[in-house]
Write a structure and sequence with these properties.
One of its GO terms (molecular function) is kinase activity. It comes from Sinorhizobium kummerowiae. InterPro entries: GK-like_C_sf (IPR037035), GK_N_sf (IPR038614), MOFRL (IPR007835), MOFRL_assoc_dom (IPR025286), MOFRL_protein (IPR039760). It is built from 16 helices and 12 strands. It is an alpha/beta fold and 422 residues long. The strands form 2 sheets. A 6-stranded parallel sheet has the order 3-2-1-4-5-6, with helices on both faces. Strands 7-8-12-9-10-11 form a 6-stranded mixed sheet, sandwiched between helices.
C-alpha cells in the first residue's frame, strides 16, 4: 500500500467524499415524490435546508411554493421557496417567526395537495414554537439545559417535542388532509428519521412520561413553569398511529453510513485500507476520543486489530457535558482527548469534524491532530489536559493553527472522524 505524504490533505479528501455523498442535489433528485393533483408546498428546517430547497426547485417539474428555515449565514438563493434564517444552537425570535410561517404555509390545504418536508439536523433550535403557557425564554432554557447535560440527541428531542407546537409530528398534523412526504437527511445515530430536528413532520413513540424521566435522569434544571407543563396532558404529542399521518411517507435520503462508505472508497482508491468502526457512536466526546486513541495505538505499535497503513472511520454524535467556561464543540473535544492518547506515537494523524461545517458555536467544523499536537501545545505553554477539563478545546487548536474551516456544506450527516495510522 502507498504511503500518504500529506496526511492532512488525505484526511480532507475523505471528508469531502463523505459530504459529497450527502449532497442535496444528488440525493433529492433521486427521491422526488409523485406530482399531486393539487398544489405542491415545500417546507423545511435545518442547517442544510436552504440547499435542499434549491436542489428540490431545480429537480421539480411543475409549480410550487413554500418556506424553509436555516441557520444564520447558511442561506441559499431560491426562486419560489422563501428562505428564512434563525439562531442555532439556541432559538431566537427569528425562529419563532419562521415556525409561524411554516405553520401558515400548510394551513387550509386539501387532500389533493402535497407537502414536501425537507428536514435535516439543526432544525430543533431553528423551530421554536412554545405553547401559550410557555415563552421563547422557556424554550431557550430547555435547549440550554439539554446542550449542557451530556444527554444523547434522542433524549434531547424527546423533551423538545413536548414543549412545542410544531415538533413531534405537529407540523404534519397541521397540514392534514394534505399528503406529507418527508425527505430526511439523518444526523441521528441509528437513523431514526422521527428524531431528526425533533420530527416536525414525523411522530415518534416517546411519551411525555419519557420526557419527564429524561429530565430526572440528567438532572435538568428547568423552571417550575416548564415542569408543570410537562406534567400536564396538554403537553402530549401525536402518536405515530394518529390517522392524520396515514397517507404520509418518510424517505431517508442521506445518512452517516452512506457517507462513511464513500470516504472508505476514497481511501482505498488512494491505496489505504479503511475500517468503519461504527456510524452510530454516542457518549462523552472525550471518552470516545480515548477509545479511538487506544485502537490507533494498538494498530500503530502492534499491527492489531488492523494492519498498517489504515484509516479508522466513524460517525454518530458524541456529547459534551459542560463543566468549564471554554470554547469548543464535540469534535474538537474528541480530538484533544485523542491527541493526549496518541502523544509521541509517530505516524498517527486525525481529523474530526461536523459534516455541516460547524462544530459547536464557532466557525470551524472541527480540527486536525497528530502525534505532535501535545508537544506543540507545551511549546506554547498550553496544558492540553487543563484545556480539556474546562471544555476549551477550540483554544488549543486555534493556538496551533489546526482548526478545520470548510464553511457551511449544505448538508448534515453528523460527526465525521478519520484516524490515519502509517
Amino acid at each position: 500500500m502507498a504511503a500518504v505524504a500529506n496526511p492532512r490533505q488525505f484526511l480532507e479528501s475523505l471528508f469531502a467524499s463523505a459530504v459529497s455523498a450527502a449532497d442535496p442535489e444528488r440525493v433529492i433528485a433521486a427521491n422526488l415524490p409523485e406530482r399531486p393533483k393539487g398544489r405542491t408546498v415545500v417546507i423545511g428546517a435545518g442547517k442544510g435546508a436552504a440547499q435542499m430547497a434549491r436542489a428540490f426547485e431545480t429537480a421539480w417539474e411543475g409549480p410550487l411554493s413554500g418556506v424553509v428555515v436555516t441557520r444564520y449565514g447558511f442561506g441559499a438563493r431560491c426562486k419560489n421557496i422563501e428562505v428564512l434564517e434563525a439562531s442555532h444552537p439556541l432559538p431566537d425570535e427569528g425562529g419563532m417567526k419562521a415556525s409561524k410561517r411554516l405553520l401558515a404555509a400548510v394551513s387550509g390545504l386539501t387532500g389533493d395537495d402535497l407537502v414536501v418536508a425537507l428536514i435535516c439536523g439543526g432544525g430543533s433550535a431553528l423551530l421554536p414554537a412554545p405553547p401559550p403557557a410557555l415563552s421563547l425564554e422557556d424554550e431557550i432554557a430547555v435547549n440550554r439545559a439539554l446542550l449542557a447535560s451530556g444527554a444523547p440527541i434522542s433524549a434531547m428531542n424527546a423533551v423538545r417535542k413536548h414543549v412545542s407546537l410544531i415538533k413531534g409530528g405537529r407540523l404534519a398534523a397541521a397540514a392534514h388532509p394534505a399528503r406529507v412526504v418527508s425527505l430526511v437527511v439523518s444526523d441521528i445515530p441509528g437513523d431514526d428519521a422521527a428524531l431528526v430536528a425533533s420530527g416536525p413532520t414525523i411522530a415518534d413513540a416517546a411519551s411525555r412520561e419519557d420526557a419527564l424521566k429524561i429530565v430526572e435522569r440528567y438532572r435538568l434544571a428547568l423552571p417550575e413553569k416548564l415542569m408543570r407543563w410537562l406534567a400536564s396532558a396538554a403537553a402530549d404529542a401525536p402518536r405515530p398511529s394518529d390517522p392524520r399521518f396515514a397517507r404520509n411517507e418518510v424517505r431517508l435520503i442521506a445518512s452517516a453510513g452512506v457517507s462513511l462508505e464513500a470516504a472508505a472508497s476514497r481511501a482505498r482508491a488512494l491505496g489505504i485500507e479503511a475500517v468503519i468502526l461504527s456510524d452510530a457512536i454516542e457518549g462523552e466526546a472525550r471518552d470516545v476520543g480515548l477509545v479511538h486513541a487506544a485502537i490507533a495505538r494498538e494498530t500503530a505499535l502492534r499491527g492489531r486489530p488492523f494492519p498498517k497503513p489504515a484509516v479508522l472511520l466513524s460517525g454518530g454524535e458524541t456529547t459534551v457535558t459542560v463543566r468549564g467556561e471554554g470554547r469548543g464543540g464535540r469534535n474538537s473535544e474528541f480530538l484533544l482527548s485523542l491527541a493526549l492518547g496518541i502523544d509521541g506515537i509517530g505516524g498517527i494523524s486525525a481529523l474530526a469534524a461536523d459534516t455541516d461545517g460547524i462544530d459547536g458555536s464557532e466557525d470551524n467544523a472541527g480540527a486536525f491532530a497528530d502525534h505532535t499536537t501535545i508537544a506543540r501545545l507545551l511549546a506554547r505553554r498550553l496544558d492540553a489536559a487543563a484545556l480539556l477539563q474546562k471544555n476549551d478545546s477550540w483554544a488549543a487548536f486555534d493556538a496551533l493553527g489546526d482548526l478545520f474551516k470548510p464553511g457551511p456544506t449544505g448538508t448534515n450527516v453528523n460527526d465525521f472522524r478519520a484516524v490515519l495510522i502509517q
